[in-house]
Amino acid sequence: MDDTRLDEYIDTHEERLVETALDLLAFDTQNPPGETTPIVEYVGRELAALGMDTTQVGGDDAPGIVGWFPTQPDPDLVFLGHLDTVPFERVQWSVDPLGERDGDVIYGRGQPI
User: Fold this and answer.
1) 95: which DSSP letter?
2) 54 and 60 in contact (C-beta within 8 Å)?
3) Which of 13, 20, 14, 21 is nearest to 107 (CA)?
4) d(Cα 47, Cα 26) in Å, to the nearest integer?
5) Residue 96 CB neighbour total at 10 angstroms
6) What backbone phi and psi angles, to 5 degrees, belong to 60?
7) H-run or E-run covering 15
8) Residues near 79 by beta carbon (within 8 Å), at least 6 away in sequence
């Protein structure tokens, strides 16, 4: 996808992209305890909605997910990240650390995906 097509995609889907970012931020995955199963399941549903095949990897204590387009013989792009976050104290935040939108700005302590 070239820069022009990417810009057009973002412009066309901006609200959905913002909603997805806020959805991801809303998962409390502070480690400890590092409960990531719900966010892994969410990401799996979102990838499947894009037509991707998925498989969960890792153990019950640290699940992950791999997604790919079934029509692609080899991956062109790979994202790797973790889904847990370091602990935070809500009282130290002036906004909701699990996602808050103020106009064009999104605040939150979240996952780096």
Assistant:
1) S
2) no
3) 21
4) 18
5) 15
6) -60, -30
7) helix 3-25
8) 113
DSSP-assigned letter for residue 73: S
pLDDT tens digits, 36-89: 999 999 999 999 998 999 999 988 888 989 888 888 877 667 777 888 899 999
Q: Which amino acid is at 85?
A: T
The single residue listed with the structure tokens 């022009």 is: 4
- With CA atoms as reference, report the closest residue to 86 among 35, 21, 32, 25: 32
Which residues is 100 bridged to in the sheet?
107
Rounded percentage of the chain residues whose pLDDT exceeds 90: 58
Measured over the CA atoms of residue 45, residue 47, residue 53 and residue 57, the dihedral's sign is negative
What the block records as the tokens of 7 is 């810009």
**What DSSP designation does 91 have?**
G
Q: Which two tokens stand for residue 53?
A: 């095949």
Question: Measured between alpha carbons, how far is 57 from 43 in angstroms, rounded to an integer?
Answer: 13
Q: Which amino acid is at 11?
A: D
Tell me, rounded to whole angstroms, the distance of Cα 102 from its chain centroid: 20
